[in-house]
UniProtKB/TrEMBL annotation, chain A:
Belongs to the nitrite and sulfite reductase 4Fe-4S domain family. Keywords: 4Fe-4S, Heme, Iron, Iron-sulfur, Metal-binding, Oxidoreductase. GO terms for biological process: sulfate assimilation. The gene is asrC_1. InterPro entries: 4Fe4S_Fe-S-bd, 4Fe4S_Fe_S_CS, NiRdtase/SiRdtase_haem-b_fer, Nit/Sulf_reduc_fer-like_dom_sf, NO2/SO3_Rdtase_4Fe4S_dom, NO2/SO3_Rdtase_4Fe4S_prot, NO2/SO3_Rdtase_4Fe4S_sf, NO2/SO3_Rdtase_FeS/sirohaem_BS. One of its GO terms (cellular component) is sulfite reductase complex (NADPH). Residues 166-196, 198-227 form the 4Fe-4S ferredoxin-type domain. GO terms for molecular function: 4 iron, 4 sulfur cluster binding; heme binding; metal ion binding; sulfite reductase (ferredoxin) activity; sulfite reductase activity. The keyword Protein transport does not apply. NCBIfam families: sulfite_red_C. This is Anaerobic sulfite reductase subunit C. It is an enzyme of class 1 (oxidoreductase). Its EC number is 1.8.1.-.
Automatic annotation (TrEMBL), chain B:
PANTHER family: ANAEROBIC SULFITE REDUCTASE SUBUNIT A (PTHR40447). Gene3D superfamilies: Alpha-helical ferredoxin. PROSITE patterns: 4FE4S_FER_1, 4FE4S_FER_2. One of its GO terms (molecular function) is iron-sulfur cluster binding. Residues 213-244, 295-323 form the 4Fe-4S ferredoxin-type domain. NCBIfam families: sulfite_red_A (TIGR02910). The keyword Disulfide bond does not apply. Keywords: Iron, Iron-sulfur, Metal-binding. This is Anaerobic sulfite reductase subunit A. The keyword Cytoplasm does not apply.
UniProtKB/TrEMBL annotation, chain C:
Signal peptide: none annotated. The gene is asrB_1. This is Anaerobic sulfite reductase subunit B. It comes from Moorella mulderi DSM 14980. Keywords: 2Fe-2S, Iron, Iron-sulfur, Metal-binding. Binds 1 [2Fe-2S] cluster per subunit. The lineage of its organism: Bacteria, Bacillati, Bacillota, Clostridia, Neomoorellales.
Length: 328, 338, 261
């Protein structure tokens, strides 16, 4: 058997534990797909795979058990999925050749405002827009989008996590001082609201922009102001040094988000260690330092009047030095 | 007198009205809904014909135009107390038949209940004039026909949106003159909703024994006491009184009233903390019986006008209509058993 | 149109502490209340509170106010000569015509004595209006006893039972709940009964009288609710189809027993 594993991997096929067989990963930007595509996935799994489908942690489908010699045939069947990618604006040169890259992972998203009342925006739509900006690309980057700080998509474990924010607008003339917002914020969120003189005072620096005060308010005294985004950066799992992402930017608009992501690829391109088979962006930042990362990611970015940037990224948390705290 | 108006004609009519009146009606505020990507339809200033929303029920009722959410009752400065003056432009309110009927309920409480009229309500109310927006059919959850509030009186004019034009029934000036100026004479008979998909049967009498019924216990678990049902209700009139000291001058401040809700914690709290109606099921019973029984015992008409807002705004899917129908069934069963 | 929400200033003539937390304020005013009515007293910036009138005379009323909330705490800081603000009187008081010519029993517990103090003093000055007045007054402990001077005077005029729930050593008087002493009152068939006090005290005391063959129609109670306006508008004191601030706070028990919050 002779196969170029590097080429296979770039084509979204995996080298699996079963010799001679591969597994195909199907991208589903934003984790949302017309049900009509399921027939195609079922067909590939039954005809070429072992009849099963795995739901990946990145919201795609993985079809295992495909014989390596069937890859060209399977690739031809993927045309409708690639056409869908093209419809999002992804440049696809050859619709018969399968996925053009796999390094940049599927952009994941929580279900967003199409379904979830807590979501501050349509996460799926933004995921699809970002897909068109960054794919195809061989750099190993993980991006996830979530509608509110509940972070159901686990944006804090990504290189770039995008969290929807809304600036709540308060009309004191409609507030009946029922305290629903104040109590909720104090008990479940960050306690950014206080009742003073029968009027709510909001600490804008403390506020997460989660929008729950708007959801709680029975009087529409709180309403939705402009939408913003918070970016948490450089979270990761893994064997070396897992960590939760920290807030890199907040209260920035969509245009700024897209520019920052574009800049991220330029930063990687400048600093990646090409002597390694691949280098994950988090480890590049470990080498260049945060200040270079920050400077280069903000090139040409208009943070707007409310935008805030982290002076440094305070990573807390996880340690593999188990001898410090394990018994025995 | 009846008139047919083009949108442009009606627009010109509104422009002329705006010189002497402030005009309120159902208006859509884009992106201001509770949930992301939704709009808020509620009462607000009407600046042009296209502002008027015909295809949705407003989240809040027109009452806030003349029963403000907050109203200063008096100002104090040291020992001196002064009454706020009111200079109010004549005000037109575009509203549906149910909401117009609701005004008579508010009038009962503020003008007829107790030894004297509420002067703050009365002085605003005299500047308010109504224009009926005719309903061709109700919205989901409406039950005006059951409540007898599908028809209304007390408006200066009635307006109907029909295809690409407006039909105006002018019942008083300035509408007759305006109709003459901006429209074509036409035969306009009032149209009322004759039937709602939802029927609510109000029990004639509610036995006090039903106060302990398990029906209310279910609501005790379901209701979150947010108060939306009452705050969106066109007939709810409860308020609390607050004293506020101005932060920039502690010698000065005001006493004001602000809408209150029997569903929200604190409504029955007495100084010292005792609550007489702590249970949420009891609060729902209190509200429902006020709307369909207690008010009628006092004033001869039901308070509820069947607008359907309380059900639409309830995040917990509690249906007032279903509750009333259940009560009615329980009373019928009791009547048969007796 | 008159503005019923505008309070009028009233000078504090005297402050008489009854207990560490209950003060009686004598206020200069020409309000002429019926016994059992209440006023809204306020201090600008602190708010209004409904307080029953504990006594009245030419040119003054008395309010006995317990320090329990924001307004009452602020009131307790005042001194004679200071000004407070009043609206009222509000509500329906005791139906004196219903009592005339009959035996009257007044059972009052704790701060519930305040709304009947003026009435008792009235009958002390007009004893001929009744066929006897019996008093049954209960307090938590001897330290909680209000209106000591009045009670001492009443004891010389009317058959009076004064009891405390818990009596420390050295308390010479009676110990026990008001309910336990109902049976000591020689009730006449058409006796009129007033019961005022905390909700549980009212419930059990009324039950005791009914056990002694008193009809609900012969009993009146005074209810306490959080009135914000006193005018039948704000809705806070509504129970069933009644407004405590209008039809109450005094209700005949045949009515009150059907009032469910």
């Amino acid at each position: 058997m002779s196969y170029n594993t590097k080429e296979l991997i770039k084509n979204a096929y995996r080298i699996t534990s079963q010799r001679g067989f591969t597994a195909l990963r199907i991208r589903v930007p934003g984790g949302h797909l017309e049900a009509s595509y399921l027939g195609l996935i079922q067909d590939i799994a039954r005809r070429y795979g072992n009849g099963t489908v795995h739901l990946t942690t990145r919201q795609g489908f993985e079809i295992p058990g495909i014989p390596l010699d069937k890859v060209p045939e399977v690739n031809r069947l993927l045309a409708p999925l690639l056409e869908k990618e093209a419809a999002l604006g992804v440049p696809i040169e050859n619709f018969q050749a399968g996925y053009p890259a796999a390094g940049t992972r599927n952009v994941t998203a929580c279900i967003g405002s199409r379904v979830c009342p807590f979501a501050n925006f349509d996460t799926i739509a933004l995921a699809q827009k970002i897909e068109s900006l960054i794919y195809p690309n061989h750099y190993h980057v993980k991006i996830a989008i979530t509608g509110c700080p509940n972070d159901c998509i686990k944006a804090h474990l990504q290189d770039i996590g995008i969290i929807g924010q809304v600036e709540p607008e308060y009309d004191p003339g409609r507030c009946i001082a029922c305290q629903a917002c104040v109590k909720n914020c104090r008990q479940f969120i960050v306690g950014a609201l206080e009742m003073d003189n029968y009027q709510v005072q909001r600490d804008g620096k403390r506020c997460l922009g989660c929008g729950e005060c708007i959801l709680q308010c029975p009087m529409a005294a709180w309403t939705r102001g402009p939408r913003y985004y918070r970016i948490v950066a450089l979270g990761r799992t893994g064997k070396k040094s897992p960590r939760l992402a920290a807030t890199f930017l907040e209260w920035i608009d969509e245009k700024a988000v897209l520019q920052v992501i574009a800049n991220l690829y330029r930063y990687i391109d400048r600093h990646i260690d090409r002597s390694l088979p691949k280098e994950h962006v988090g480890y590049i930042v470990d080498r260049t330092g945060y200040q270079v990362f920050k400077e280069e990611l903000l090139e040409g970015v208009d943070l707007g009047p409310k935008g805030r940037v982290a002076r440094e990224l305070p990573f807390y948390g996880y340690s593999y030095d188990r001898n410090l705290y394990m018994e025995g | 007198m009846g008139y047919k108006l083009t949108p442009a004609g009606f627009g010109a009519l509104l422009d002329e009205l705006a010189t002497n009146y402030q005009i309120f009606g159902p208006v859509r505020y884009a992106g201001k809904g509770r949930l992301a990507g939704t709009d808020l339809t509620t009462y607000g200033p009407v600046r042009s014909v296209s502002d008027l929303v015909w295809d949705a029920r407003t989240t809040f009722a027109p009452k806030e135009v003349f029963f403000p959410v907050k109203e200063s009752l008096l100002y104090f400065s040291g020992q001196e107390i002064t009454e706020p003056s009111l200079e109010m432009k004549e005000t037109l309110v575009f509203l549906r038949a149910c909401d117009l009927n609701a005004v008579s309920r508010l009038d009962k409480i503020f003008l007829a209940n107790g030894p004297e009229p509420d002067s703050y309500y009365a002085r605003r109310r005299q500047h308010i004039h109504f224009v009926l927006m005719e309903c061709q059919e109700g919205f989901p959850g409406c039950f005006c026909v059951s409540m007898g509030t599908n028809m209304a009186t007390g408006h200066q004019a009635a307006l109907r949106l029909e295809n690409d034009h407006y039909l105006l029934q002018a019942l008083a000036e300035p509408w007759i003159a305006l109709g003459e100026r901006y429209g074509q004479p036409a035969r306009v008979e009032p149209v009322w909703v004759e039937k709602n998909p939802l029927t609510v049967r109000v029990p004639e009498r509610v036995d006090i024994a039903l106060f302990q019924h398990e029906l209310w216990r279910e609501y005790a678990c379901r209701c979150i006491a947010c108060g939306r049902c009452t705050l969106s209700c066109p007939t709810c009139s409860c308020f609390s009184v607050q004293d506020v000291i101005y932060r920039d001058n502690p010698e000065r401040g005001e006493r004001r009233r602000v809408w209150a809700s029997c569903q929200i914690d604190g409504f029955t709290d007495m100084a010292g903390g005792h609550q007489v109606r702590a249970d949420r099921g009891d609060r729902i019973r209190f509200k429902v019986l006020h709307k369909i029984y207690d008010f009628r015992r006092r004033f001869g008409i039901n308070m509820c006008v069947g607008c359907g807002r309380c059900e639409e705004v309830c995040p917990e899917y509690i249906s007032f209509a279903r509750c009333v129908n259940t009560l009615n069934q329980l009373m019928e069963v009791q009547g048969r058993d007796a | 149109m008159p503005n019923p929400y505008l309070p009028v200033p009233a000078k504090i003539l005297a402050i008489q502490p009854q207990t560490p937390v209950d003060y009686t304020f004598k206020l200069a005013t020409d309000i002429e209340p019926a016994w059992g009515q209440f006023v809204e007293i306020s201090l600008p910036g602190y708010g209004e509170a409904p307080i029953s009138i504990s006594d009245a005379g030419a040119g003054y009323i008395e309010l006995t106010i317990r320090r329990v909330g924001q307004v009452t705490t602020a009131l307790h800081r005042l001194n004679p000569g200071d000004t407070v603000y009043l609206r009222g009187p509000y509500g329906t008081g005791f139906p004196l015509a219903e009592f005339a010519g009959h035996q009257l029993v007044i059972a009052a517990g704790g701060t519930g004595v305040a709304p009947v103090k003026g009435l008792i003093n009235y009958y002390a000055n007009h004893p001929g209006e009744l066929e006897g007045l019996h008093l049954l007054l209960g307090f938590k402990t001897p330290a909680d006893i209000l209106f000591r001077a009045d009670i001492e005077r009443w004891q010389t005029i009317f058959p009076t039972i004064l009891t405390v729930d818990q009596g420390p050593g050295g308390w010479p008087g009676r110990v026990g709940l008001v309910t336990e002493f109902v049976r000591e009152i020689p009730l006449k068939p058409h006796a009129r009964i007033i019961v005022v006090g905390p909700p549980l005290m009212i419930e059990f005391t009324v039950a005791e009288f009914i056990k002694h063959q008193v009809n609900p129609e012969q009993i009146w109670v005074s209810l306490e609710r959080r009135m914000h306006c006193g005018l039948g508008k704000c809705g806070h004191c509504k129970i069933n189809d009644f407004y405590v601030c209008l039809e109450g706070p005094v209700f005949n028990y045949s009515q009150a027993r059907n009032l469910v919050d």
